Amino acid sequence: MANRYSLWSLLKNGLKHNESWQPAWRSPQAKPRYDVIIVGGGGHGLATAYYLAKNHGVKNVAVLEKGYLGGGNTARNTTIVRSNYLWDEAAQLYEHAMKLWEGLSLDLNFNVMFSQRGVMNLGHTLQDMRDIERRVNANNLNGIDGVVLSPKEIQDIVPLMDISAKTRYPVMGASYQPRGGVARHDAVAWGFARGASELGVDIIEQCEVIDMIIEDGRIKGVKTTKGDIFADRVGCVAAGNSTPLAKMAGVRLPLESHPLQAFVSESMKPCLDTVVMSNAVHGYVSQSDKGELVIGAGIDSYLGYGQRGSPHVIEHTAAAIIELFPSFSRVRMNRQWGGIVDVAPDACPIISKTKVKGLYFNCGWGTGGFKATPGSGYVFAHTIANDEAHPLNKAFALDRFNTGHLIDEHGAAGVAH
Ligand SMILES: Cc1cc2nc3c(=O)[nH]c(=O)nc-3n(C[C@H](O)[C@H](O)[C@H](O)COP(=O)(O)OP(=O)(O)OC[C@H]3O[C@@H](n4cnc5c(N)ncnc54)[C@H](O)[C@@H]3O)c2cc1C
């Protein structure tokens, strides 16, 4: 790697007043033709391009991004990474991603700040606890780490939480995945962009795909704001914008696009060193390396493409967090934002070929796709390179909405991103 980051390069560049660093990725003009075009320069699109070049030797690839890298959900999410999904298909897909996370900074030579500080899902009713026990057992059978915690064990890990019996929703226990945690979201986009660019992938920003070029049921290329670009294979990874993109090709996706919000507080001394989620009070919180509380909840219920949400959702979420952590009521909130998430009826992704030959979609990750970023790129690259699903994403094809083989992960998704 020409631009390898190391202690030595840090020293060398420091001595040269940091004026000799190379740009992390190239910004070339688009060529008229590529072997593969990836639409969407979020984490998933960039990871797809990286693994196409690295694992399959397909290097004549362009990633087309309508804005800037990571301007979509990739750098708008709350960065929770876990793999404790209920059903075998989902558990194996997310666990594969988890294993890639564990070696990602080394693989990319870029610190994605993956921090395995554990993820806790609280139970507040007997039924919650039954569901938690069922999920932890299913996870363990799939080789995924997870334990059920008692209120006392929760308190040992999170002393600030109110676990007293006088709360509106008393905490009865939790599931805990110690290998879960958080990562730095924009670093994930930058790391994959740098790795892909180094392998020869062209990353074209400010280049919106406005139509598809299709002849005799085969994709031939795309029309963009920078002109027509041709390729025999096109992979779309556009999250909340997947439906309009599919419409250009006459493909209907079973997706709804909803706003999802998050907000962060002022920076504070370390006080919370794990991720805490509760479906019942409807909120979750972690503390970033900068010291901010990172807070989120469920989707806004209306459909739309504006990257913002409604104030009452923020109010409701803040109330939920204060219910769990009364001392946070005195913390000032700093900023809020929204992203557009693409929700599928079974709360599982779609990684699939389509009725148009050479056109593939990777979408439907809804509120929980960040954790899958490396795994999603890995299996989608395989699907595009071989025109055939990887064994891990076979069950996530579009035809499951015709056959009825849905993978219902609503229990593991929703508020729990
Ligand atoms: C507030 C919030 C919190 C979340 N929290 C979590 C979490 O804690 N854990 C978790 O696992 N997941 C979380 N998610 C979900 C996660 O962010 C997404 O599932 C994931 O980032 C999707 O990645 P992506 O690369 O597919 O999408 P994106 O990063 O959105 O990338 C898609 C890209 O496609 C581009 N694009 C769209 N249309 C076109 C076009 N026509 N031409 C060219 N480019 C186009 C967009 O500009 C965008 O950059 C959260 C999401 C939000 C909004």
Molecular structure report:
The structure is a single chain. It is built from ten helices and 19 strands. The longest helix is centred in the N-terminal third of the chain and has 21 residues, at 88-108. The strands form four sheets. An eight-stranded mixed sheet has the order 5-6-4-14-15-16-13-17. It has two domains: 30-79 and 86-92 and 185-254 and 347-403, FAD/NAD(P)-binding domain, CATH 3.50.50.60; 116-182 and 256-343, D-Amino Acid Oxidase, Chain A, domain 2 (2-Layer Sandwich). Helix 3 (88-108) packs across helix 9. The mean pLDDT is 96. The protein is α/β, with parallel strands linked by helices and 417 residues long. The two termini are 35 Å apart. The structure holds flavin-adenine dinucleotide.
List the helices and strands and how they pair.
Blueprint: H1 7-15, E1 36-39, H2 43-56, E2 61-64, E3 80-81, H3 88-108, E4 119-123, H4 126-141, E5 147-149, H5 151-157, E6 173-177, E7 181-182, H6 185-198, E8 202-204, E9 209-215, E10 218-224, E11 227-230, E12 233-236, H7 242-248, E13 256-267, E14 275-278, E15 283-287, E16 292-299, H8 311-324, E17 333-343, E18 350-353, E19 359-363, H9 373-386, H10 400-403
Parallel strand pairs: 1-2, 1-12, 2-8, 4-14, 12-19
Antiparallel strand pairs: 3-7, 4-6, 5-6, 9-10, 10-11, 13-16, 13-17, 14-15, 15-16, 18-19
The structure holds flavin-adenine dinucleotide.
